[in-house]
Amino acid sequence: MKYRKSQIQSSETIFAVFIIIIIIIIALVFYSRAQEGKLKEAEREQRSLRMISLAHTITSWPELECSVLNSRDFNCVDAVKLDLLQDFIKESKNDDSYAFKYYSDVLRRSTITVTEVYSFSGPLKTWVVYNNSFASRSQETVYIPVNVYYPLEQRKSYALMELKVYE
Amino acid sequence: LKLKLFSSRKGFELQFNWMFVLIAGAVFLFFFFLIIRGQVSVSDEDSSLQAQSDFGFILRSSQGSRESEKKIPFNSRIEFSCRDGVPSYGAPGSPFFENYQYLVLFTPHIADSSQLLFKTMSLKAPFAAASLSYLTTGQVSYVFLDDGLQSKYLFSSLPQDSTRAFHTGSVSSLEDHNFDQVVIVFDASKVSPSDVLNSNLPFFAQNRHDVISLVEYENAGGTPGSFGTVRFYTYSDAGFSLVGESYYFSQLELLGAVYSGSYELYSCEADKINARLGLISELYSRRAAALSSSYPSCGPIYTSMIAELDEVKLAAKEPYTISSAQRLFESSQNVHSFNLKLVDTTSCALLY
After folding, report:
1. Residue A72: its chain B contacts at CB < 8 A?
2. Intra-chain end-to-end CA distance of chain A, in Å
3. Has the ipTM of the complex gone over 0.90?
4. By CB atoms within 10 Å of each CB, which of A23, A75, A83, B294 scores lowest?
5. What is the pLDDT of residues A83-110, one digit of tens each?
């Protein structure tokens, strides 16, 4: 079959257009990959920011802080308040009350655990204050050293507050 | 020549190639135009969302501060509203507004300045109950019509860099300095409300009337800032008209009314404070019960505290009225007295 010169010219043009389209598609794929990386980075940054603000909030929470006549003790949590808050959040989860909504909004997808590491007297205790964990590949953990104050025995112990944030 | 070009076969081929290139070129151009337009709108949305997210971070991290005052550079406009009891903020161009249903923020409707004036204070009722955030900008002007003790406190509680002034002369002589919002504040016991409400503001052009808001407060307790009523007015050609009446049970709440200058925004935040107060009172009530079982000798004091805390919980649940504001104020004062009694007369553990 013999092609005319004009037919060959048209085919060449169509071929050139086809190649250009393919180049554009490849460029778009690379661009979207780069954007995806940027989005993941932004997500990670957001998670870190959220953890910083949450850690900052819970260490000075009225719900947990040690205070004597409103004078605050820095990085100190009250053992009685820990017991009460742990039970209170669990209870509120069951009845879907304002309290549950409040803590879910403030703490979101996170887990807060206080584990005693040294006590002058008495056994070492662990409190799971809040647990809204779920299987997630993206999670960040921070440990905050705190004192645990027992107002009834008037003694202190050393503990680590573990804050896990999930995305 | 035209006819010749189309009539000959070669001429037709040439025309076909050119038309093909033109159509393909137009399609490419259109395609790139769509991409660029999409990118521009995505970039606008991105910057709005970024501003919103930055503001969210500022707001959430402020919850960890007890007393702080900050100047935060911020190059975006943020708008605030409260619909159906749900407050939200957002930057113009953002596809959605962010709700902040559980964090307390007193702010005017618009924050549009290169610098945000952010303040955090801890509400004590009498124990630390909530972290209250206050936001304003230099573009919001606060004018106090009296220089009584209470107004002086409110004036000094506004940030150093805010635009604030005492104007003890006639309201009608207030001049327009082109601020985004002008909040006029007065104590009803120091300035006659009828004098203020019957005044005109001739220096404000008609299209600037909506920037004016008037906050009238009336202290009902014995001491300044204890508890009382706060009324919000807007201004129009017909003069000042009442938008709504709300209440306060602490100085910090009244300060919030001044910061926002808006009935809608203030009521939302006041409701949140009451809900939070109910929650924290429940925790302190349980703490009092736990301490009572360990210290039987102080049982009666702890029991009295529990009764007062129950009163706080009840008052906080009710719709906000002057009576509930009074009960919140008095019961928290009573809890404080009982706590002092524990210090002065016993060796039992304190409630807070």
Report:
1. 66, 128
2. 64
3. no
4. A23
5. 999 999 999 888 778 898 999 988 888 9
